[in-house]
Amino acid sequence: xxxxxxxxxxxxxxxxxxxxxxxxxxxxxxxxxxxxxxxxxxxxxxxxxxxxxxxxxxxxxxxxxxxxxxxxxxxxxxxxxxxxxxxxxxxxxxxxxxxxxxxxxxxxxxxxxxxxxxxxxxxxxxxxxxxxxxxxxxxxxxxxxxxxxxxxxxxxxxxxxxxxxxxxxxxxxxxxxxxxxxxxxxxxxxxxxxxxxxxxxxxxxxxxxxxxxxxxxxxxxxxxxxxxxxxxxxxxxxxxxxxxxxxxxxxxxxxxxxxxxxxxxxxxxxxxxxxxxxxxxxxxxxxxxxxxxxxxxxxxxxxxxxxxxxxxxxxxxxxxxxxxxxxxxxxxxxxxxx
Length: 338
Known about the structure:
Elements: H1 2-24, E1 30-32, H2 35-45, E2 52-53, H3 68-76, E3 79-82, H4 89-97, E4 104-106, H5 131-144, H6 175-192, H7 197-222, E5 230-234, H8 238-244, E6 248-253, H9 262-275, E7 279-282, H10 289-295, E8 301-304, H11 318-334
Parallel strand pairs: 1-2, 1-3, 3-4, 5-6, 5-7, 7-8
Helix pairs in contact: 2-6, 2-7, 5-8, 6-7, 7-11
């Protein structure tokens, strides 16, 4: 009888130990705002857990409304990864009011990013040298002198001291920024989930390698069309343009939640004619009527650029695939293949 008692006691101890181990290995609850951010987080969490994506395909973070179930997910999250209120205004109040404010991870505040000011006005010259472009030129100069395999220097914010609302939030479209974000996400996840810190670091290294390979392929694709002028639906691509030295002539609207007026459309049409812009690029999240108005009566082609990669299944591959899609679609339209 005593022997049976000892066996029962040992079994209960083993069971308790196994439950403790299981509890400590539970994956953290992570929420990511948009598909590119979700992809970077998913890459770092691969094999450990799966982050939840808020803004699904076909939606825009500029105009998104949070559902009650998503608000509850934010409240329960160990980590909420987002860019900032200028991109995801729907998150500003909920994130400020969650029970654990430390769960908020605002990517715009990550050290080492190359940030650019929001451009003003509907048109701009490719490679112009105003204040925002001067900041971009520093980025390009540094990029030219880095070689494959070099670690990127974390040099702080390019627009230090500038309020968030004056910073262009589409920072993930610069692959160099994505490399910085992957490291920062891994470090933050390691704080939340120390048991998996080594795995996060390994995954981050693999994700960086994937991004570098994709960046080089995108560079090869866009190089032949880099000097050809084009116009975009809204000014979301400054980071991509600066990184790859593209010749963007302007945008139909500065922000997709602001309707372009007649004066703006006239200005864009005049700039397109002056520069010989070959393409105007729409976005899949928004109605194409403004683009149709701008090109009416011209031989300008219409292409499509998607800064959110909504055509791609959420996961680690979505960010690299989005970069390649941007490069391919840009090249196809500018070369007359679309």
